[in-house]
Design goal:
The complex is a heterodimer of chains A (529) and B (410). By secondary structure, chain A is an alpha/beta fold. Chain A contains 20 helices and 20 strands. In chain B, the strands form 5 sheets. In chain B, strands 3, 4, 5, 6, 7, 18 and 19 form a 7-stranded mixed beta sheet that branches. In chain B, strands 10-9-8-13-14-15 form a 6-stranded parallel beta sheet, sandwiched between helices. Chain B has a two-stranded antiparallel sheet with strand order 1-2. Classes of the chains: A alpha/beta (529), B alpha/beta (410).
Chain lengths: 529, 410
């Protein structure tokens, strides 16, 4: 039986309560009759033999690329870059897709006698990966073959000796990327395309770039004009990356792009109820929900965090394509859309969403308030194609505990951003003009980014900018069940219950509003007509 | 007349310390050596002394430390018992050249008040706070009115003061404004006190003011008025203190556990980790820290955020503290005390600190810091309020003697 497509449910009196994620927990909420709930399509079938499909993709590339085998020769410099710990979410059960692909590429390199090979985690301005995280992504065999010999690198966007300025695009955007990658005879980039935003020219132009380069598209203006991030043809973020990608190609950097898509099989057996539709919950699902909820009520937050972050998703590969960047990415988008697109008719006055425990920037870490904002307004709000699920001037209601808590090793500049910058203003343009440069060049943050496991000093700014489109579009943002002081610091309104939040929202959108709940994860893209 | 009298009673002294340790500052008054008594007015101890009838008399942090039994034994020979506390005083003069005038008291009991001639070197140059003879002369030991058995103090219906201690209050200034002149003078002296050694917080320096009680807030105002700090960070624990710090001129206001991070990001300093991502201390830091708390913890914080070669100014009265001075030594940090007042070097020449303080009280509107007034009879309540002022959204608590005085006249 083929998996069922996405679905928009209209709530009536017989509809059971709807599950809302709430950080490291859940809430069952009764939505008013007439509300809509957007459910993701069921997971697509996995590739029967992913390793064979990878080999096939490398032998039969898309676009004007030659097969990988023919691009490899003795004496060449080969660099294999790969997506970092921010993908996939949650981290997948072993073997990770990156391990499968990198092993296949290395097998071909070995057959061709290539011995100058370096692997690079494409961190951009993210934190460095720990050895355990690298082992998980690449597998023991690859890790042990490269790491002890200094051949497994993590991109350092602050290492002037290993960056090279390739030039400027016709829009004056400077393109500065990893020197080893740029000066290799071949750069293979291994992607996990969890959402439509990932991959394409963004892989190299962002993942291997410096602040000097990234600031040209990670800024308020670009973010406000990316409508949405999930629709690259209407995303200024992607347009800028595409211009940079073309310049990278023109500068002579030969990129062999490998993109993989995953199905939405997101949670292991004990959490299966999280990806089922509530009225279809079996007795076992109900028991699972009750047991989890009751146990979590008594679990200290730190322990609950550890439990959730130990989840390994049973994601399976649904496609792999390789070759020329543009052609590969177009095919990838077809696969992502096949898995995630859900047709939705018309916008809504109020969009509700339950935010889970994880986003790309808190793997094995704390979802601090800035990341809560980014996940809700940067990611979930942007899970659309066509027009936003919520109308202009509408209200987003997010459910998350939003603790006033930060991981001091991973997010040091976030603490200062929250304590100093947001205490003074939440205005995007003011923040960008007044504070960004100081944080971006602060030597302490640079030091921690390079030597510890800290996100770059400018990263919290990017997370805030990520909300730019939503903040310009919405009339109000309400957080249910969040730390009230933290929510207010973000400039949002706290509410204790969903019904309080709906009542508060009516002050903005009027009586008898339309309500839509985005039932994610599993991930989906609302194709709004 | 009524007076709150502090006796030398070691058992009660110990009891107040235990109570304060157990229940918090200000809670040891009931069992301590302070009592409301009917006493004779103090005798005029010599030439130049006049009677002063207090209108308002403030409760200071040093008073609270004394009442809690926390003050340093250093002061043992610098006070005489029994004494009537109260050195922040606005009142009316009876007798002498200032007869009938409303005045504020400059409480330091220097050579002149002590009938000593010639004056010591410090008093001769107007630096009364540094008087070398505060335990000698025609009156008993006592570094200030409020700690001397012979002068009485502000927490009573009457005291005696030497004319050299008195400053007339302009008519337009309220009693509430006038009672703030003494604490403001301490702050002005702290802000300008480094002038003689060339270490004032001027010329774009980055400054941290630790503590936002009366002294901390006055220091913020004094720095803003008399120095030109490039960046002034105030550290305040309670919401009202934060609001007032901003109003009085702080560029940034942070909570105590945020100060190291705040100082780091404002100076772009590197930092030494304490483990788990926390910061132990900065390798650079701010130019000057004004410590208006005076505890071991505040000094430790000061040492964590001051730059090598920088200065820590002790404004709040410290007691015995256990402190690792290695960073002070290795980073060549100057530690400067800022006690009381006298004469300040200003760009316009020397000026009495009290004159500068009076101007500051007016320009910064420091009368708004007076947030509670009690009659002497409710002294336990008043002292408990003063001890918890920050938590209760208050700053300066005073005794209001105006009604007491009216009753005594009847």
């Amino acid at each position: 039986m083929s998996p069922r497509p996405g679905f928009v449910l209209e709530v009536d009196r017989s509809t059971p309560p709807t599950l809302f994620w709430h950080g490291e927990g859940f809430r069952l909420e009764r939505l008013p009759a007439g509300s809509r709930v957007v459910y993701a399509p069921e997971p697509l079938a996995a590739l029967a033999d992913p390793d064979a499909e990878i080999r096939r993709a490398l032998e039969h590339p898309l676009g004007d690329s030659a097969p990988l085998r023919s691009l490899l020769r003795p004496g060449m410099r080969l660099t294999i870059a790969f997506d970092d710990v921010s993908l996939p979410l949650p981290p997948m059960q072993a073997p990770d897709v990156r391990q499968r692909v990198v092993e296949a590429v290395l097998d071909l390199a070995a057959e061709a006698g290539v011995d100058d090979v370096v692997l690079i985690a494409a961190l951009a301005l993210h934190r460095r990966m720990t050895d355990d995280e690298l082992r998980h992504a690449l597998g023991e065999r690859v890790f042990n073959a490269f790491a002890p010999h200094g051949l497994l690198w993590q991109h350092d966007a602050e290492d002037p000796t290993n960056l090279v300025l390739l030039g400027q695009t016709d829009q004056g955007e400077e393109v500065e990327i990893n020197r080893r990658a740029a000066e290799s005879d071949l750069l293979v980039y291994v992607n996990i395309n969890l959402v439509a935003m990932d991959g394409g020219h963004k892989s190299v132009a962002t993942g291997l770039a410096s602040y000097r380069s990234l600031r040209h598209h990670h800024n308020v203006r670009t973010m406000q004009n990316s409508r949405s991030f999930m629709d690259r043809h209407h995303s200024e973020l992607h347009s800028s990356n595409w211009r940079m990608g073309q310049l990278i190609a023109k500068a002579g950097v030969k990129v062999f792009q490998i993109e993989t898509t995953l199905n939405t099989d997101t949670f292991p057996e004990q959490f299966r109820f999280l990806q089922r539709r509530e009225w279809e919950w079996s007795l076992r699902d109900r028991a699972g929900f009750l047991a989890s909820s009751k146990a979590l009520e008594r679990t200290p937050p730190e322990l609950a965090r550890r439990i959730f972050h130990s989840i390994r998703a049973p994601h399976q590969m649904t496609s792999v394509q390789a070759g020329e960047v543009g052609a590969v990415h177009e095919r990838t988008l077809e696969h992502v859309h096949r898995q995630q697109l859900v047709q939705v008719e018309g916008q809504t006055d109020i969009l509700t969403m339950g935010l889970p425990f994880i986003c790309p920037y808190n793997v094995n870490s704390i979802m601090n308030p800035i990341l809560v904002a980014c996940l809700g307004l940067g990611y979930f709000f942007n899970l659309y194609r066509g027009k936003p699920l919520v109308r202009e001037g509408g209200v987003v209601i997010m459910s998350h505990p939003t603790p006033w808590a930060f991981h001091p090793v991973h997010h040091p500049s976030y603490i200062d951003f929250f304590e100093q910058v947001l205490a003074e203003t939440t205005d995007l343009f003011e923040i960008e003009a007044k504070y960004e440069a100081a944080f971006a060049t602060d030597p302490w943050y640079v030091h921690l980014y390079r030597t510890s496991y800290a996100y770059h000093g400018v990263h919290p700014f990017y997370m805030w900018y990520w909300c730019a489109h939503a903040l310009a579009h919405l009339g109000k943002v309400i957080v249910v069940g969040g730390d009230r002081a933290a929510v207010r610091r973000l400039g949002f309104s706290p509410a204790t219950t969903l019904s309080d939040a709906l009542e508060m929202a009516e002050d903005v959108v009027g009586r008898d509003p339309t309500i839509t709940h985005l039932h994610t994860p599993p991930l989906l893209i609302a194709d709004v007509t | 007349m009524k007076a709150l009298v502090f006796e030398r009673q070691l058992a009660r002294f110990a009891a107040s310390r235990v109570a304060a340790d157990l229940a918090g500052s200000g809670h040891g008054v009931g069992v301590g050596p302070l009592e409301l008594l009917e006493v004779d007015p103090p005798a005029l101890p010599g030439a130049g002394f006049v009677r002063v009838t207090p209108r308002l008399s403030g409760i200071c942090g040093s008073d609270l430390a004394t009442l809690d039994g926390r003050s340093s034994r250093y002061f043992e020979h610098l006070v005489s018992f029994p004494f009537v506390p109260g050195h922040e005083v606005v009142g009316d003069v009876a007798g002498g050249a200032l007869d009938g005038q409303r005045v504020v008291l400059e409480p330091v009991l220097g050579c002149e008040a002590r009938g000593l001639s010639p004056l010591c070197a410090a008093c001769a140059t107007g630096q009364k706070g540094r008087c070398e003879r505060i335990a000698f002369g025609t009156i008993g030991a006592g570094l200030q009115t409020g700690y001397c058995a012979d002068t009485g103090g502000g927490w009573s219906a009457g005291l005696v003061a030497h004319e050299s201690q008195l400053h007339p209050v302009p008519e337009h200034l309220s009693d509430e404004a006038a009672v703030m002149i003494e604490p403001a003078a301490c702050a002005v002296h702290a802000a300008l006190g480094g002038m003689e050694s060339g270490h004032t917080a001027t010329g774009g320096q980055r400054v941290v003011v630790l503590g936002a009680g009366t002294l901390g807030l006055c220091t913020v105002a004094a720095l803003r008025a008399h120095a030109l700090p490039g960046v002034l960070v105030a550290v305040a624990k309670h919401p009202e203190q934060r609001r007032l710090s901003r109003l009085l001129g702080a560029d940034h206001v942070v909570e105590p556990d945020e100060v190291v991070r705040a100082a780091r990001r404002l100076t772009g300093s590197m930092a030494l980790p304490a483990g788990g991502g926390a910061i132990e201390r900065l390798t650079g830091g701010v130019d000057t820290v004004f410590d208006c708390v005076g505890s071991a913890a505040s000094l430790e914080t000061s040492l964590s955020v001051v730059r090598p070669g920088g200065e820590i100014v002790l404004v709040g009265m410290p007691g015995p503290v256990k402190l690792d001075l290695a960073p002070l030594w290795q980073r060549e940090v100057r530690l400067r005390g800022a006690y009381a007042y006298g004469t300040e070097e200003t760009p316009a020449g020397p000026r009495p600190t009290f004159d500068l303080a009076r101007d500051l009280v007016e320009s910064a509107g420091l009368d708004r810091l007076v947030s509670g007034a009690y009659p002497l009879e409710r002294y336990e309540e008043a002292i408990a309020h003063a001890a918890q002022a920050g938590r209760r959204g208050s700053v300066k608590i005073v005794f209001d003697l105006r009604r007491t005085r009216a009753k005594e006249h009847l």
